[in-house]
Amino acid sequence: MELQTVISYLMSSMYQHESTKYPSKSKPIENALSILVADDNRQMRHSISDLLEAYNIDCTLVEDGQQVLERLKTQHFDLILLDIKMPKVSGLQVMSKIHNHYPDIKTIILSGEASFENSRIAFRMGAIDFLNKPYNPSELIGLIQQISNDQFLKTQKSEPIFETVTHSSIDKTLMELESIIHNEDLTFANEIINSSPAIAFLWKNSNHWPVQFVSDNVVNLLGYTANDFMTNKVHYTDLVHPEDLNQMLREVVTDTTTMAFRHAPYRLITKSGSIVWVDDSSSIVRDEHANITHYQGIIIDVTQHELAKKKMFKKHESLQHTAHHDALTGLPNRLLLLDRMQQAINKSLREKKSFALLYLDLNKFKPINDTLGHAAGDNVLTIVAKRLKQTIRSVDTVARIGGDEFIVLMESVSDINDINLIARKLNQSLNKTMRWEHHDLNVSCSMGISLFPEDGTTPDELINNADAAMYQSKLDHSNHYKFYQHT
User: Fold this and answer.
1) Helical axes 167-180 vs 2-15, angle rounded to 10°
2) Would the pLDDT of 9 be above 50?
3) What is the reported pLDDT for 21?
4) How far apart are CA 133 and CA 111, in angstroms?
């Protein structure tokens, strides 16, 4: 019976990682779960509902996080499909509540807010997976099928592996595993474990986690044999990537009421020096005095999944940068400028300080474009952007908002003389001759300045008033910058 328990434990854990085996749409999911779908987009909610209905799965639909929390007070759910950005209560706030008060409920995030930080927080709070919208229906159904099968294994009365196993029976099972696996009469068990992607470990609770048992298939992943570990030729913690070791050790559970835990994926260094990512699901073994004597667990190679996830995050960051920056100069664009202006407004209200907005429009730029071509014009804009960045303070922002127009956001201004000083420096910087092929190019700028809160309390008001002041400056060629004047 103990051998079956061990094999069931390994197989059920392995099943969580069989993410490529999805059911066909014509095949209903057995052992259907009680599912709650939370999304503020009505079309998305009903799209998910239609998909689940095709597999004979009923679900409850709600449109915000507050409704999720209200439902949980009166109704049990096995799984919640959760959006992050919702009104009233966000998905991450819901995750926090579930993590603290409903730990048995599984969650899958379905969101267009797939930032690295959101993903990291969701996984830390126990999310099964993070699917970016538009989601892949097969991937979602595959995850639900896995959770359903896992739930079925947990509820089997004949083998209540996860629900009612005592600490003493786990201790006994783990000790017997070591002897069973070497028993010539039960080599079939060895074949089952070693033909699986799951590697079974038994670590002693002491420095470097000495390995007292490891399945032979460890050599396929790490290059070291089981004997290398069990004779202390190699220590497990020495293989953990130095950047991941402290985090992995911090995650080891020491609470005497806890029986099992799961590490965030971490990296191991193989015998050949290559890096593999592993998922580590472990349980604690205690003696009769509740002292931790061993850790037992399985590790599974999740390298491809982790690399794909990192590639997705990197692509997302690249897209985010493209969406918020000017393609030619690399400066923040209008969208990012508006966001930083709103932050500056909020900060100024808290700290009771002012800030300034300097609107710059280049003079003599159009003739350069018309006579020498757009390549020359692009070169001028690139040089202007570089000079502006070199002139302003590190806490300030310079943005290109279109054509030959730039805006400088000066934060935390306490003295009008500081603004005058920067305005003069900007003019001096741009007045220097530029070189394009065999041509000397000269540009200058007309500048208008608005102040918060005197000249506006919203980003649009401040930009419009700085623009109006810039226009007045352009009409007065003897003065290259003007402050906004109320009429």
Assistant:
1) 90
2) no
3) 35
4) 5
- Least confident segment among 50-54, 129-133, 159-163, 360-364: 159-163
Q: Is the pLDDT of residue 176 over 60?
A: no
pLDDT above 90 for 357: yes
Rounded to a whole number, what is the largest CA-CA distance in the chain? 100
Q: What is the edge-to-edge ordering of all strands in the sheet holding 444-452? A: 397-402, 405-413, 354-363, 444-452, 481-483
Kindly give, in sequence order, each residue whose CB lies less than 8 Å from that of residue 413, ignoring residues fewer than 6 positions away.
353, 354, 355, 356, 419, 451
Amino acid identity of residue 33, one-letter, is: L
315: which DSSP letter?
H
* Cβ atoms of residues 213 and 177 within 8 Å: yes
Q: How many residues does the chain have?
A: 487
Residue linked to tokens 């508006």 = 338
| Bridge partners (DSSP) listed for residue 121 | none
Contact 82, 70 (CB under 8 A): no
Backbone angles phi, psi at 47, to 5 degrees: -65, -45
Q: Is the dihedral of CA 79, 74, 163, 55 positive or negative?
A: negative
- 437 conformational bin, left if phi > 0, alpha if psi -120 to 50, beta if neither: left
Determine the 3-state secondary structure of 364 from DSSP.
coil
CB burial of residue 324 (10 Å; 0-12, 13-18, 19+): middle
The percentage of residues in the chain with a pLDDT greater than 70, rounded to a whole number, is 80
- List the domains of the chain with CATH numbers: 2-154 (3.40.50.2300), 167-307 (3.30.450.20), 325-483 (3.30.70.270)
Q: Is the pLDDT of residue 104 over 80?
A: yes
Residues 11-35 pLDDT 10s = 444 434 433 333 344 345 555 788 9
Q: Comparing 220 with 477, which gets the higher pLDDT?
A: 220
